[in-house]
What does this fold into?
Amino acid sequence: MDNKEYQRQIGLLENLQDQMIATVSRKEYTSVRNTLVALKLQGSAVKAAQIIFNKFVNVSNTLRVDEITRPSAIKMIKDLVKELEIALANQQLIEEIKEPKADGETSDLSLGFNFDNEKVKELLETYDGSKTKLEADLIKNHKVIGYAPVLPLTKPGLMAENLNRVGIKASRVAGYTVLDKQLVVGISLDFLKSEVENYGLLRDSLDSVISLGKKATKTKVADGAYFLAVVKASVAATTMAERFPEDEIAQDFLTKFKKVKIKDMDTANSLLVAIKDLAHHISSQLSEYGPKGLTEADLLESLKDATSQAMGKRLVQLGNVTTAIGAKWLWLAPEKHVDMLNKSAMGGHFKLQAWGLAFSSTKK
It folds into this structure.
């Protein structure tokens, strides 16, 4: 769906609200149904429209004549139209998520924002201030803990008015609900790739040390080849230890044995014991990541745990990992915050289908 078609539909929704208010007292629904047909809805928005039309009929049937003009009745109708508007926006959001971007990212969601609208422009400029800071932090530190505007795709749709009422700052941007300031953590794609590849090198280095250590152990002590086997194992162990500059045991090995010269059997034997101890220590360090080794998910989970510890409270991850501005991101929140989100949703509960950072860089 292009932006022009989406704006046409938003215009029809404005007319739909007036039609509902005008016809609810007459219990005559043809014009409302015709407008819904003219919207040319697709996907999940079709089902949402049918549900909302049925709710409108129920509202009409339960209201007395003297209640038609009351603010509460008009508010019910306005809420129904907003519900449909959010369903329509979410449908376009689904199409955006499925549409592959040139850079391979799938969730840097500026979507079909109406850039002719001054209020929308102002909001996006504010949001892009967050984007600039996050990008700068990524370049400097590779990892980011910060706040950013979040654009959620939910069932049912979240209404900005309800969110603000429960204390979560939110805005309506061309039909979309944007949560203005949410806690996010991210790690740059380059850093993730580098760390995972580095783990593979460490694993290979450890395997080499273990193999050479076993070979040295099996070599006959009386044979001159024993010294050579220990030297080879020592060289591999030194290379491995240098990959752990912050590990005390690895650095202690380097201090004691990096420049040692094997002149006698006692030196060779003590060096081989030290090599085996180092290999055992490094193996235990790497084994925490399981049989598949270190993954990007492990690194993101570690950052999540560090953030929880720094904030002194348990944080819940909302939705899946999303990719934007050259990094992978988690949306985090305290359990109380999640309760507030549920409280703001119609029916007291919502299902998060996808989310993105509400920056305007993807489409202009």
In short: Residues 96-116 have pLDDT under 50 and may be disordered.
